[in-house]
Design brief:
about 70% helix
């Protein structure tokens, strides 16, 4: 009876640990992806200024693009750079990026938005 209980305990422990083994295989990929996104966003944050000027200018006109687009671009540049720095500092905790699109070149014609991060 004691050996049966021990065997049952071992089987239950292995079944409970199995999902963790699967997630452990994905962890290095998620961490490297977050670090890469962080470095890219920290370095290319300044590109948000001409990107936003172009998007707003095409949508609302040249004057609006040069004024509102410029100011919005500065805010987006600061946000993307800070988001990248945060991702670099916390790359060991795999979360989704704060900015959409994740990197500036993913969808260059789409306006940048900031969202809540979630676990990957």
């Amino acid at each position: 009876m004691k050996k049966t209980i021990q065997a049952l305990l071992i089987v239950c422990t292995m079944l409970l640990a199995a999902p963790q083994w699967v997630f452990a295989d994905q962890y290095p990929d998620k961490v490297i992806e977050k670090l890469g996104n962080g470095i890219a966003n920290a370095v290319t944050g300044v590109v948000e200024i001409p990107k936003t000027i172009t998007i707003v200018g095409n949508r609302d006109g040249v004057v609006h693009g040069m004024t509102v687009g410029f100011l919005t671009g500065i805010a987006n540049a600061v946000g993307r750079s800070l988001s990248g720095a945060f991702d670099i500092a916390t790359f060991l905790v795999p979360t989704t990026p704060f900015v959409k699109p994740a990197t500036i070149w993913d969808d260059f014609n789409r306006e940048t938005t900031f969202v809540e991060a979630h676990m990957r």
